[in-house]
Structure formats: C-alpha cells, structure tokens
C-alpha cells in the first residue's frame, strides 16, 4: 500500500503529523499561547461568543473572534487540553498547504505543486504556527484563499473560485481585521499596474453576491462587539491598525507591550520564518546569478502568473517594512507564495545534483522542533510555564487552603492551568494575612529573585514546596506564626 503512495506525499504527511507531538506534549509557555488559550476557555465557560474576555470583566479588543471561536468549539467538542486548543491552527495550516499545492498545480503542474506544499509545510514559522494557539494561521488562511481564488479566476478556472475570494476576505476580517484588505489589496493593485491590466478584468468576480455575503458574515459581529463593549471600534480599528504601525513608541496596547523593532525588520523576520528554504533560495539565486543565469530568472517575472505570485510574496513584507511594531509571525501570509516561488525556481535552475538534499531539508525543521519539544518535556531545559507549579498546588491544597496566590504578577499560564482560580496578590495584602488569616494554609508563588532568606524572614514558617524557572511555591500557616508572636510577647 505504501509503495503506491508518492514519496513526496509520505514526507508531507510525516511533516504535518509530526506536529502532533509538540501539540500534545509541550505545555503552554508564557505569554502568547496561554493568553489566547485562556480567552478561548473563558468563552466556553461564560457562554459569551460575542466578546472575547481577557479576564473576567476585561474585554479583549486586540483581535476579532474567529480563532477564539474555533478554539472554543474545539474545547466543547473534545474537552480541555493543549492538543485540543492547538488543533484549529493545525487544521487551518493544512488548508493553506492544500491551497498552495492546488494553486501551483493548476498553474505549473505536479512537480512545482508537490515541492510548493513540501517547502511551505517545512518552513520554520509554518511548522510552529501550525501547532500554536495564535491568530496568524487564520489570517494566512483568509489571505491565501482570497489571492489563490483571484489568481485562478483570472486564469479562467471555475467561477466557484470567484465566490471563494470573498470567503477568504471574510475569514481574514474575522481573524485579524481590516489588515486583511491591505494584505490582499496591495499585491492585486500592484499586479494590475505592472501588467497594465484593466481593473475591469476583476469583473469576473461576483462582486454583488460576494460583497453581500461578506457584509452579512462580518458586520454583525463588529456591530455587536461595539454595542456590547463601547470603545472597541476606536481601540481596534484606529489603535491597532493605524497608531501601532505609524507610531514606533505607541503605548496604547492594553494587553501587553508594543513590539518595537527597527524599520525593515520584517525582512529579517522573513529569513527566520522561511528557514531553511529562504536561505537556500537566496543562495541558489546568487549561484545562478554568478553563472550568468540570474537575468533569466528575473525575465521570468514577465509571466503574469509568476508576477502575481511574486507580488503576493512581497505584499506583506513591503507593507510592514516601515512599521515600527512588528513580530516575525507577520511574515506568515507571505510564505505560501514564497514556497511556490522557491519550488518554481528550484525546479528550473541547473541544480539537479543538489536535489538529493531536498528531502532532508524538508525534514530539518520538523526534526529540530521535535527534538526541542522532547528535551523540554524531559526537563533538559526549563520552560516559562506554570503548569507544574499549578499541578503541585492542586496536589497539596485542601478545602482549608487559599487559592494559588502569585506575588505581584499573575502569569497567563497560571491563569489557564488553574482554570482562572489563581489570583494576584500584593506584598501589603500578603502581609495582612498574618494578622487576619482567612485560610488555614496559604500557598504563594514568589518570584525567585526574592531571596530565600527574605522569604523566611517575611514568612517565618514558610515551606518551599517547589521551584520552577521563575517562581518559588511556598506554603505557610498563619496561625502558627501568630502563636509564635504570642510566645514572644509573653
């Protein structure tokens, strides 16, 4: 049976399936994954599918709800676990792999299509985001579906693809917001100008039905979100989509810190995100150029189809070039088309003697990431997660114990793994418990930079229960402390 399956499909399946290892075994590490996982968990717990909640009483205005809907639905279907909450991102990534393969297949045939799918699925950012609780895979699914649908429609394929263009737009608007329109519009507009194609050619798209569909799917949530928590539109549309990118010192992020980066950093992020293939492609093009064949590769861009893919690759990178706040995940919408370009050129360059290295290259990131996961789960290096500490607390606590208290700052992973039960406490509040205790035993996670001697002086009868990367879990009985004080007074 396996002998009948093409090697590329076996490798592709192995790459995608290998991501399950990390999805199942790797705990949520602060900050992104547990933050979004807790928002999805709260959506299920509260039954509120309109407003994502950052924590009870605090709405999360930073992202539209599509990824949270998918994760919450997964929880309802399969229960609560790291694998279950990560599964929607994996499914979205598989959808992008299919679109990448299908687009390349209809344009340039099996060889380019197969290598497009392999290259894309084995890029560093693709592989990581496929098994991570983030919104980026859903944005990339929307932009890829829209651009692929338009590309196929313009090349005379089924009219169904024209309608799918608007499905992609709707997915993007509900996954990331108006940024979707820019990431789709920039390559389309540039392509029309460079190919001197009349905008009327876009009339092949069913604009009336498509726009009606998009409005009916997208606008109700935006209206309900503003009605339910006024201020959402100003923060999300103006703050997240204008101020964040134009103001390098933007400090309006309510849910974290702005990611200040040098302008143009997105190109460095693209090299990281496309590893190892981006470096390979740059190296191959350099070799080809020195052999005098580089101009042939550039002349190939005269093909409107290849130019369309090239501009779809460049669109996100050019848009984020002047941005002062960027993350490497912003390069993800570029990667499906990057993969097609790489596959197209690798199959045409005179590099046949290097082809035996292609499959090992496709396995590089999956193997490295799987080793990283296994080493982390075996304790070879410490993780920024409170999973073990929360589990230790649950094992030790009884009905007379305090909630798990975190001194001064409550990590997102502690919120998630405690199912929202862990609480933040200040030094003053903690000191007050010695005079007026509410529980027989207190459990407090104290930052490790506070010395053991300070803990013992401060909480004289404290016992260290567990140490992790950032915190020391201590327990103490305030009644014992009060008895000690009484003896000293006598």
TrEMBL record:
This is Dolichyl-phosphate-mannose-protein mannosyltransferase. Residues 30-236 form the ArnT-like N-terminal domain. It is a multi-pass membrane protein. Its main location: membrane. One of its GO terms (molecular function) is glycosyltransferase activity. The keyword Lipid biosynthesis does not apply. It is found in: Cell membrane. It holds the Pfam family PMT. Keywords: Cell membrane, Glycosyltransferase, Membrane, Transferase, Transmembrane, Transmembrane helix. The chain crosses the membrane at residues 7-29, 87-108, 115-140, 160-193, 205-224, 269-292, 304-321, 327-346, 358-381. It comes from Marinobacter salarius. InterPro entries: ArnT-like_N, LipidA_mod_glycosyltrf_83. It comes from the Bacteria.
